[in-house]
Amino acid sequence: MEDRLMYRREFYIGGDWAAPAGGERLGVVSPSSEEVVGEVPVATTADIDRAVGAARAAFDDGPWPRMAPAERADVLARAATALRKREGEIAGVTVDEMGCAVSQAPRAQTGLVAALFDYYAELARTFDFEREVTAGDRRALVTNEPVGVVAAIVPWNAPVTLSSWKTAPALAAGCAVVIKPPPEAPLSNYLLAEALEEAGVPAGVVNLVPGGREAGEHLVTHPGTDKVAFTGSTAAGKRIMSLCGEQVKRVSLELGGKSAAIVLDDADVAGVMPTLVGGAMHLSGQVCGAHTRVLLPRSRYAEAVEAAAAAAAKVTVGDPHDPAVLVGPLVAERQRERVEGYIALAAAAGARIAAGGGRPAHLPKGWYVEPTILADVDNSMRVAREEIFGPVLCLIPYDGEDEAVRIANDSPYGLSGGVWAGDPARGLAIARRVRTGSIAINGAYPPFPLVPFGGFKESGLGRELGPEGLRSFLEPRSIGIPASLG
Fold first, then answer.
1. What is the per-residue pLDDT across 60-90, written as a single tens digit (0 to 9) for each?
2. I need a surface site. Which of 163, 195, 235, 339 has the fewest CB within 10 A?
3. Are residues 68 and 134 located together in one domain of the fold?
4. How far apart are CA 470 and CA 118, in angstroms?
């Protein structure tokens, strides 16, 4: 990619490209070449203070929260246009900064970016921000007010997509935003900031400050932020929720998952398994909503394992710049070590490696793991209970529908899931029993961004996307109206 996209010298603060307060710089390492391919400044607490101060001033004294919703909608629509022009650049940067296979970029990195800004532009024009209520001789005006300054903290697996999930509805609500992209993949969000600047977002309404854990914690606890919107690990989410609790600060969390796909006995197992394997390998398995537990009727278990292993063997692994490749590298060496550790744990616990399990022999450089199928998995094993975040699929047998539902729900998580059935009505009946935030029947995923996304249990708190995503950035207020007002 061009140096102007990969080597950044400034932050975006208060409507300007601002020099950092400190001199520390972070080298961005390509997961496929293991070489430095870019660089960004690292935010200090002083930089976070400047960004929050700019957002605070924009919210408290600027025009943005006082504009009519239709005026904000016009800016969001222009942002969608500006982002569409940058889709190729966003995809290219993420291939280099976090190893996303270019074949996956339209789905993971750009597919729900411009479309999301268009969606919230339209919703802002039609949303009921105010309503009048009458009870006898009493009247009230119920208004939905922007929550304030939002700290948007995003992970490395889909950095611009997940920033947009927070920024677009926050802007539609009238909030100001400070985005902290992840240190592993900090570059692509600069393109989001450029697009929003081009669209005419007022100074200070959007700010961008890459940084590490210290900067993130300072942003979360900063008295100038009113809400934290976070996507990331459950462990980090618990820490953020604890910190927000000390200040009674609003928080929304989209966290980990260990989602189950239930394959019923009337499903086309041979046809379903390649789809499930491909889905689990999307973004090298680094997807919170991936269906990483496949629950299979014991009567068809051997058939399913054979089909899954055959499908995994056909998955192309290699250079993420190659359009023919499905699975690129993991984001970092530590992530590969984590995934390899889980595979070893599975084998030690009695699971069988039906496919993969090691490093691809033809890829001596880069942080790759073979697409791996684990058979004979019991739901009590750590590999069935903990999020691996790699190209690993667990196959678990069950006896009867009730046991399938019990196993699916026997998890600390509840983010996504699926049911595969020959009879869709039967599939729907099973889907209604699974405790999870979203679920697909026969691969029919809900129509995001029109509907909410989020999790039950340790998969998070609150919802993103849909009207619910807008409401999460609004505070309802009731105003009593005297009869004399007319």
1. 999 999 999 999 999 999 999 999 999 999 9
2. 235
3. yes
4. 13
Partnered with residue 464 across adjacent β-strands are 453
Do both 279 and 177 map to the same domain?
Answer: no
Q: Using an 8 Å Cβ cutoff, are 140 and 479 in contact?
A: yes
- The dihedrals phi and psi of 293, each to the nearest 5 degrees, come to -115, 120
- Enumerate residues 6+ apart whose C-beta is below 8 A from 160: 90, 94, 109, 110, 113, 188, 189, 191, 192
My answer on whether 429 and 413 are in the same domain is yes
CATH number of domain containing 169: 3.40.605.10
Ramachandran angles phi, psi of 5, nearest 5°:
-90, -25
pLDDT digits 0-9 by tens, 107-153: 899 999 999 999 999 999 999 999 999 998 899 999 999 999 999 99
149-168 b/e (C-beta count within 10 Å ≥ 16 → b): bbbbbbbbbbbbbbbbbbbb
Q: Which DSSP symbol is given to 201? A: P
**Average pLDDT of span 419-423:** 98
**Does residue 268 surpass a pLDDT of 90?**
yes
The reply to whether 471 falls in a domain is: yes
Which DSSP state fits 109? Answer: I
Strand partners, 150: 177, 227
Given a contact cutoff of 8 angstroms between Cβ atoms, the answer to whether 164 and 152 are in contact is no
Looking at the domain assignment, is residue 455 inside a domain?
A: no
Query: Any alpha helices (H) in 296-394, and if so which ranges?
Result: 301-313, 333-349, 382-385
- Domain extent, residue 349, equals 260-448
335's tokens: 């992530």
| Number of folded domains that form the chain | 2
Mean pLDDT of the chain: 97
Residues 150 and 17 in one domain: yes
> Do 469 and 423 sit in the same domain of this protein?
no
Of 87, 97, 184, 254, the active-site residue reads: 254
- The answer to whether position 486 is within a domain reads no
Decide if 254 is catalytic.
yes
Same domain, 109 and 199: yes
Name beta bridge partners: 144: 476
Q: Please state, in angstroms and rounded to a whole number, the distance separating the CA atoms of residues 253 and 228.
A: 8
Say whether both 9 and 138 belong to one domain.
Answer: yes
Same domain, 231 and 215: yes
* Token pair 């607490």 in the structure block, residue: 45
Please report whether residue 485 resides in a domain: no
Return the CATH number at 330: 3.40.309.10
Q: pLDDT at position 2, please?
A: 81
Q: Both tokens of residue 70?
A: 């239709």
